[in-house]
Structure formats: C-alpha cells, structure tokens
Amino acid sequence: MTEKTLRLLEYTKIVDKLAAKAISVGGKEMARNLLPMQELYDIGIAQAETAEALNVLLKCGSLPLGGIKDVAASVKRAELNGMLMIEELMHISEFLYVCGKVLAYSKDAEKVGNTPRILDMFAQITPLPQLMRELNKCILNEQELADDASPRLSEIRRDKRVQNNRVRESLNGIIQSQTYKTMLQDSVITMRNGRFCVPVRAEHKSAFGGMVHDQSGSGSTLFIEPMAVVSINNKIKELEALEREEVDRILRYLSSLVAANAEVLVTNAEVLTYLDFIFAKGELALGMNAFKPEFNENGVIDLRRARHPLLDEKKVVPIDIRLGRDFNILLITGPNTGGKTVALKTIGLFTLMGQAGLHVPTDDNPVLSIFDNVYADIGDEQSIEQSLSTFSGHMTNIVQILKDVTPFSLVLLDELGAGTDPTEGAALGVSIIKFLHERKIRAVITTHYAELKVFGLQTEGIENAACEFNVESLRPTYRLLIGIPGKSNAFAISRRLGLSEDIIEEARTFLSAEDERFEDVITNLEISRKTVEIEQERAERFRLEAEKLKADFENQKQRLDESREKVLREAKEEAKKISDAAKREVDAIIKEARQIKERDGNIKDLELKRGEIRETALRHAQVLDDSKPKEIHKKIDRLLKSGDRVFISTLAQPGTVISEQDSTGHVMVQVANNMKAKVAVTNLTLDETVRPAEKPQRAYTYKGTASKKSTISATLDLRGNTAEASFGKIDAYLSDAYFAGLSHVTILHGKGTGALRAAVQNYLRKHPHIKSYRDGEFGEGDMGVTVAELK
Q: What pLDDT score does 570 carry?
C-alpha cells in the first residue's frame, strides 16, 4: 500500500487513534508502524490476537500497564558493564512491579477461555522478585540511595550528620555572639563552594579571621568560613568523598544484578510491549463497537451497517456495502455532500484496517477480501470552478493506477471524469470503467454523469448505487441504496429554494427526450424501492408478531405440561401418604391389641389378627390405585358445543369447550389454570372419563372394644395443667377419639395468659389425626376452648 493511499483513506488517523490506546513507548511505536498485510495466515493471526484481547478486556478490564518504563537501553548498557544511574535502576524496579501486576491479571485472564495466544504470551513473563527486593531496598527515590543500601553507607551518612551538627552549633555560637555582632552583615549561615560560611562586612575581614570563599556583587560582604569550623568542614568533605565512592560501589553492584538478569528483562520488555500493542487493538475495537471480519481471497466484500470510524458515532449513518459477488464494479451517484465520498472511503479504509489486523465497526459477521493493493484517487477539495490543472492531477493519478493495477487490486475513484468538458469526461469515464470491468478488477467509483449510470444499467457485472436525498428537507440522508442510480435533483432543489416555475419549465425544454425518460425511470425505481421498503417493514412486523404468538403458545404449552406433572406428582405423594398412614394406624392397633391380649395369653389369635389387619392395609392401598379415574376418549362424530369435555392430543391435557366450532374447524378450549387455547377439532377427542367433583372422605372403623367407644367424651379438660403435661394427655385422647369415630372434639384450656392455648394449638398443628382447628365461638367457650376437626 502506498503512503499516498494510506493518507487519502485516512488510515494514518486510525493508527494515531491506535497509538493513543497504547501505554508503553514500545507499544505506541508498534501502533504507529502498523501496516496492512497481504498474507491470509498473517492477517488471521493478527485478527485472532485482537479478538482475544477484546474478549479478555470485556471480562477482566484493561491490562494493568500503568507506570511501565522503557528499560531496554538501560539493560543493554548494564550488559556492557556500564554503571546505571539511580533513576535508571528505579525505572527497572517499576518495570518489575508492572510485570507482577500483569502476572496477577493473567490469572483472571485464564478463566476467560479461548485465548491461547495471549495466555502463551503471559506465560513468557518471568518475575524477578529477588532483584526487585534488592532495588527497592537500596533506592529511596530517583536521586538518592537509601541509608540501608549498605552498612558502610549508613555509617558514613551518620558521621556526616554528626559533623554537620557540629558546624551548625559552632556557627550558631558565632552569629549569636555579641563580639561578632557588629562584624556580621546578617545573622545567617550560608553555603559557599560546599562549605558553611557567614556573611561578614568587608571592613572587618582581618578582625574576623577565616577563609574567604565568596563576596557579594558590591564587594561590601564577604562570605568567610571561620577558622573554628575549617577542620570540621574538611572532615565533612572527606566523608562526602567516601559517600560518593560507596554510592558508586552500590550502583555498580546493582548494575551487575541487572546485567545478570538482562535476558529475562529484555524478554519481559518485548512481551509486555507486544501485549500492550495487542490490547490497544482490543481497546480500539471496544471503543468503536467493532467486529472481527471474515476474510476471503475471492474479492468479496459484504459490510452491514458499516460506520466510518472517524465520524461522530452519534451522527454517523450506517451504510450497507457489498461488492464482488453479483458485480465487480459499483457506481455511486447522488448530490454533492450526500455521502458518496464517505462510502468510498469506508470500503477502502475497512479493507486497510482489516488487513492490518484491526476489527471494523459494523454489525456482526463483516466480510472482507484480501487485496494486493488498494489504489485511490480521491479529491476532497471541491471548488465552484474546476480548472484544467485539477483534471490533469486526477488523470495523472488514474494513469498510474491503470499501469499498476492487477486483478487482485481494489480501485477507488472519486468523481471520475470531473474537471473537464462533461461530454469528454463522461466518455473517458465509460472507457476507464470498461477497462477495469474487462480485467475483472474490483472497483468503487463515484460520478455525476448520467452516461455512466446508463452504462451501469446496460452492463452485467456493474451495479448502480445512490446516496439518498430528501427533497423536502433539502438534506441528504447519507443512506447508500444499491441497485438504484442516483438523481441530481437539481430541478426539485431549485423549486424548493424558490426558483420561478417558468424558469424550471424552460430548463426542461433543453433536456433531450432520452434524458427525461431516464430520469423518469429513476423516479419510478425510487417509488418502487420505497414501496418495497414499506412492505418489508410490514412483513417484518408480521414476522415478529408471529414469533411472539409462537413463543406465547410454547410458554403456555410448557405451563400446561408443568401443571400436569405437578398434579400427577401430588397425586402420587397423596396416595403414598394415605398408604403410609394406614400402615401406621394398623401397627398402632396391633400394638394396642397385643398389650390387651398378652394379659390373656392368647398369642396365636393375636398373630392371626395381625395378619388380617396387614392384608386390610394392602387392600386399602390397592383400592387407592384402582380408584384413579380411567381415561375414556371417544372419537368426535358431531359438532362440538360449549360445555363438551374434550381431550387435547397435542397437549395431552383435558379441557372444556367454551365456544362453538367455527368455519375453519377450530374451537376455543379452556384447560388447566384457566388458560385458553384455540385448537383444531382434528386434535380433539370426546373425554368421557369419570372425574369426581371432590375427593372422597376416608372412612375408618374403630376396632377397639365397645366399652371404649361408648365412654369416650367429646371434650378434654386441660385446665390447671402445664403445657408439657398436656401434650401426653392430648395424644392419648386424640387416639381414642380417632378410633371411636369422633369427627370433632373440644379441648378446654381456659383463657388465662393464653400460653396454654398457644401451646395446645401449636401441638395440634403437627398432629397426624388433626385435619383443622379453630378458636371457640360465642356459646362454645370463646377463647377458652379450641375446637378440632379429626381426619
């Protein structure tokens, strides 16, 4: 791709946006140097990396590269036995810290899945904790080593602080002394040439004594180091020299550690730089709401709702562009500022972005082709008067393009044939289009010439397209309509702007009959297109409504199935409860009978009785199974009417007809949960199953002695008992009442504080013989009694 093409299609602005997404110096440089590729394999890898980065970004957030430094040069110098400065070593420490953050981030990225390339890069990062600890221990900031960098450095700095304090104490004594007060220009301590001094008036130089290190501009003040502190300052100088030597030694030591780990540091830097570049591509795709394109080598392009990435995303109008399947050349016509050039640039820019490994802002599943080159002649400068020089410039570019183009190239020509005599320009345009068409070259061309529109209509493999224009508002809609040649709309626009109708009609007389017929054809096509769009919208609405109805029906059927399963499940559970209860009751009777009979010693009769009772329980369970209604379905041999019970074969559910049969052979049926469904009669059978209106009550016969049945009372008095004592009495009483066949009993507990009443009712709630209970009513004892209904 030539630099001119990249500039014309604004690809350079895209890579600038990409570079802005990168964080590291190396990542930004890689972004700026990104160029379109031509090998399908290379493009596939680049696109897969972008897709993986986008996937990780959506799940884990941005790659934590904040604070990363470019350490490549420093590491290289350390390898050459160079001594690194404190700032360089600190940058390496910060770089290692970023490596640690990225490795922690990689743990979350592993959970995303389907990101093998990125995970492989994460695996190449090696942490260097020992080097990082050593650097952090020794470096205080970008200009200073920490005192703890070495014991020797700590000792030197401690001695230096002691000597500095001695100097200050001595000088403070001088500037506060009455003896020297008249000699001093000011009572301050200053530093000159690295030594502590005081400002002395020049006339007192001899009387003050000491070493002169500097003087003021006027010469009236001398900065003198008193003799009393000369030796101390000398000691400080010696300590400073020792400090510099120790600092150099430490820096060389740390530099040697960096050199020893140079290979790992360089690898980490390269990996982080490439990761930064990949995630910058992902960030760009995320910001543009872009998708991974599918590539082919057949020259096929299919973009749905493509949005030019450099236009305001709130204002840009998405367009549909296709090329290479039914036609190889697309001719776009329409008014100025109608979006022709934007459409041209969009298809070219998307091709460059896709071949560079970038996602493109379209709806899902964009299709792009790999081209060996993209040639563009786009004139953004549009003036009122087109000069010969403009035409010559365009033609020079086209001549070069026609020399270099191959069947695997993409050609983009803006305003073909413009800038010269319209007749000659149109003729040249047709000839150039024919040249490209004969060589099966993919091309997108914009024009105003009607001759080119006619050529497109007459030639197979060439398709017209129009940029839609709203004559009422005098504004373009920027929609690209493939299959319809565009109109200039000059007469309509002039009329809307107020041009006299006489002038417009006069202008029409200068048009040839062929021109008018052609414009009429375009107008009819436009009317047909709008009609088709309206019908398509109606069809889409109907389709959505049908899908909604289908979904509602499926949901209703699912609810019916769930209801049916619930009813069957509850019936089975209820049957099991009845059987288990019968068994427990039989066992209780046996136990009671055994206690009575054992006193008489007739064990043989007892066992016979036990066998009879168990057989009774089994028969009871069998009766429950046999009592289920047998479904009887009968073929319909008459017209259905409201109230007929039917069975719906498609839903496997019974229901009731609630409407007369209509002319289409359908009736409305009410099924479970008051749901209604319109069902074909062919899917129904008459339901003659006997379904009892309510559940029959179970009958129990007390098998005990006649004396117990005759003496059982319908009232139990618990007044004066504690709750614990009452529970045993209640249990024994309810067992006797149950087997005596009593349906209701009254438990007298009194009103009092209500504690006994609450305990009794709580016990009744869980008792197996109790069906329900309630407080007493007026005349029964009010809140002082509880009336219970036995099962």
A: 80
